[in-house]
Amino acid sequence: MNTPRSLGMRAALLSLLIFAAILGIWQVATQPVAGTGVAVDPEYAKLVGNAAATGNKSAMPTPADIGATLWKHLKDPFYVRGSNDKGIGIQLAYSLGRVLLGFALAALAAVPLGFLIGMSPLLYRALDPFIQVLKPVSPLAWMPLALYTIKDSAISSIFVIFICSVWPMLINTAFGVASVRKEWLNVARTLEVGPFRTAFKVILPAAAPTIMTGMRISVGIAWLVIVAAEMLVGGTGIGYFVWNEWNNLSIANIITAILLIGLVGLLLDQGLARLAKAVTYPE
């Protein structure tokens, strides 16, 4: 019998097996191999910083190399040794700050407007063409315009996060509000419940699951976009860190940053998932 507990244990065991298989394949793929006899410029080999250029070792670091690099970053994540040399904790903090600020501003704009659109068929028809035209535009396409008008790379990044976060929340809020059962609204009218009380006591609880789904989608997109935005504008942030390490040809640091980006994205999603559960099924 598959109880939730036994199913969870089996899923965790399967995840560990898959993880072990990935590490095993990775380790085998990065094992030293016999020289190919191809002549390689020694200066290039020195620049790359490992034996890969000589044909004796894969250019990819091994799992042990990544573990050592990760531990090195986690031991001192908040160091500052110059404008272009800051700990990975500082880089993540800058990126998280931009994402959370842009996301919060988008929520303040999208949820009330989504309510109005969902409750008014006239407003929905009037605004739908603008939404359909602007929604497919890549958030990064707004970056040159933001840099030209705002003239600040950090604020421009926040603006791009706002743009990419607003559409999922706006559309899901409007859909959730429009999907509230008409019987509940009719009962509220029969009981002569005011419009504001109806919105907060009837519509908002019914639409909350859909709104929270839009927020989860938005925060995932925002965290994805900030990495690309920071690669473009530079300065600080985990995206700039990845690009800077590429310029330094440090593949181990790049892979470490990718792992941390994925972990932070998971934590953001799970945090909103728990919030959604608390909102949808309050104790």
Note poorly predicted spans.
36-41, 43-56
CATH architecture of the largest domain: Orthogonal Bundle
Mean pLDDT, all residues: 84
Q: What is the element string, with H for helices and E for strands?
A: HHHHHHHHHHH
CATH superfamily descriptor of the largest domain:
MetI-like
* Percentage of residues assigned to helices: over 70%
Q: For this entry, what is the oligomeric state of its chains?
A: single chain
* CATH C-level name of the largest domain: Mainly Alpha
Structural class category: mainly alpha
How many separate helices?
11
Major sheet details: none
Shape verdict? globular
The end-to-end distance, rounded to whole angstroms, is 29 Å
Radius of gyration: 25 Å
Fraction in beta strands? under 5%
Descriptive terms for the model:
about 280 residues, 2 domains, MetI-like fold, mainly alpha
Task: Write structural notes for this entry.
There is one protein chain. The chain is mostly helical. It has two domains: 4-61; 88-280, MetI-like fold, CATH 1.10.3720. It has helices at residues 4-29, 42-48, 63-75, 88-119, 121-134, 143-150, 153-178, 182-190, 195-233, 238-247, 251-280. Mean pLDDT is 84; it is low at 36-41 and 43-56.
